[in-house]
UniProtKB/TrEMBL annotation:
Family annotation (Gene3D superfamilies): 1.20.120.1760
UniProt-listed GO biological process terms: phospholipid biosynthetic process
Entry keyword Translocase: no
GO MF annotation: an example: phosphotransferase activity, for other substituted phosphate groups
Keywords noted in UniProt: Membrane, Transferase, Transmembrane, Transmembrane helix
PROSITE patterns in UniProt: CDP_ALCOHOL_P_TRANSF (PS00379)
Protein family according to the UniProt entry: Belongs to the CDP-alcohol phosphatidyltransferase class-I family.
Protein name in UniProt: CDP-alcohol phosphatidyltransferase family protein
Length: 264
């Protein structure tokens, strides 16, 4: 058992350290190529440290036998998201080159469809990998919504904040934590968020078209979350009603068994 713990500790140090190192290297490349400012550097380094810390803790808790090829793809995608985050933070002082911004974001979005396929083909799908992939997706959408909001207004932040609002609500309403059935529509809407936000952030559309594209993204997301919330609520009520009927039947049976016989 001790040998397994030593292996896991070494695994965590190697995999997460490489990820943090590549993130710093990407920031250095961006700094030399486009002159990344202090805000971009600080944000990028903070992202690298946070990713390293959270991922290390998750690996220590789950203790996987190996990090896995799919998680390496997701870690590479997280590195690109860190670069996009640094560019967005720097954009408040100077706009980043469109080609660099769009290029990093586009590759990160394309790789979103790769890590899942790698996990299935190699038989390395794990709850940790799925959660890691989901968190990287959610943070990229949040960062893109922040960038687009600087042009269209704060209402765009609803797109990036909706998933985090759902998680916060689930802490107060436990029925939101119930597992959802697989849904192609949900996956499609989630994938469209990044594509539509990138299109809006690219600056290649006129203002009215940028507003329309972003509004479509928000409307689709509200529909998707709303449908899931209604399903979860309906399921929770069905379970509660079933439990209530079961308890009522038990009480009725107990009363029947304890009732005194009536004299004939």
């Amino acid at each position: 058992m001790a040998l397994n713990n030593t292996y896991d500790a070494r695994l965590v140090q190697q995999e997460t350290a490489v990820g943090a190192g590549v993130q710093i290297l990407l920031l250095a490349l961006l700094g030399s190529a486009i002159g990344l400012g202090p805000a971009g550097w600080l944000t990028g380094v903070a992202f690298a440290v946070a990713t390293w810390a959270v991922l290390s803790r998750a690996l220590h808790r789950t203790r996987p036998r190996s990090f896995g090829p799919a998680n390496r793809v997701t870690l590479g995608r997280a590195t690109l998201v860190g670069g996009v985050t640094a560019l967005v933070a720097d954009s408040f002082e100077s706009a980043p080159p469109v080609t660099v911004f769009v290029g990093l974001t586009a590759v990160a979005l394309i790789l979103d469809g790769v890590d899942g396929k790698v996990a299935r083909r190699t038989g390395t799908s794990t709850p940790l990998g799925a959660r890691f992939d989901m968190e990287v997706d959610a943070f990229l959408i949040l960062v893109l919504s922040v960038y687009v909001s600087t042009r269209l207004g704060p209402w765009v932040l609803l797109i990036g904040g909706m998933r985090y609002a759902f998680v916060a609500a689930a802490r107060v309403l436990p029925w939101l934590n119930a597992p959802l059935p697989p849904s192609t529509a949900r996956k499609t809407v989630a994938a469209l968020q990044g594509v539509l936000l990138l299109l809006a952030a690219s600056g290649c559309l006129p203002f009215w078209a940028t507003c329309a594209v972003t509004s479509i993204a928000l409307a689709a997301l509200v529909w998707s979350f709303g449908r899931d919330v209604l399903w979860l609520r309906g399921t929770s009520r069905t379970v509660a009603d079933g439990v209530g009927r079961g308890r009522a039947d038990e009480v009725a049976l107990m009363l029947e068994l304890t009732r005194e016989p009536v004299a004939s």
